[in-house]
Amino acid sequence: MVRHLKLLTVSGITLLLVCLSGHVCWGAGPAASLPFINIGLDKAGNPGDVAVVLQIFLLLTVLSLAPAILIMLTSFTRIVIVLSLLRKALGTMQSPPNQIIIGLSLFLTIFIMTPVWQDVNQNAVQPYLEKKITSEQALEVASKPIREFMIRQTREKDLALFVDISGMKRPKNIDDVPITVIIPAFVISELKTAFQIGMLLYVPFLVVDMVVASVLLSMGMMMLPPIMVSLPFKLMLFVLADGWYLIVGSVVKSFG
Predict the structure, then answer these.
(1) Whole-number Cα distances in Å, 53 to 28, 42, 56, 176
(2) Could you give the dihedral angle defined by the CA atoms of residues 227, 229, 233 and 235, in that order, rounded to the nearest 10 degrees?
(3) Per-residue pLDDT tens for 92-119?
(4) Which of 1, 105, 148, 215 lies 20 to 30 Å from 230, alpha-carbon distance?
């Protein structure tokens, strides 16, 4: 049996190599040719064709950067960190799984950012598609609601830090601050806010862990892991307090 398997494997590899070389012959028939792809450059007959190709190229570039834009310029960062810290505070390991946390964070981000995206679509995208404004004007109009959202969530201290690091002159007002300075300040502000919320989430579950560990130590049950006993109590506390309602509601309202 092993010998037959070896013969089949060798025969299959040989046949594959022959097919790749393009010299497969069936009896006395002609050799079978494989299709190939040829990519070349040629002169465009119409300048509009070049513009369409460049638009497609730019669209693909934007789509490839869409995940980073979604994470960095929206509420996704705060939400996903809070939910991840909540799972660690509960001690449920991989429950809920990463797919659930990321999916819930994504839908909450869509819910929070919908007014901003509607503003962008109404005042920038649709006028550009109707050829009422140019692409530069559309980009400038689209950046305004996004800037306003990020500025509302950015601490003045973080904004001043990046203004100082950039070496630019002190701006007269917030409109003079470039978006390249606002984005990193917004991100670190979101990180600090998310960790502050996570710290508050840890406190009640930490108290439960300490109480359970003290009780087990007083009973002499030192070989029993405290997490095995405290986990049901933490889950019961979380369910009785309607934890998902409170946490999701608090996180969403924190962007108001």
Answers:
(1) 47, 13, 5, 35
(2) 50
(3) 878 888 899 999 999 999 999 999 989 8
(4) 105
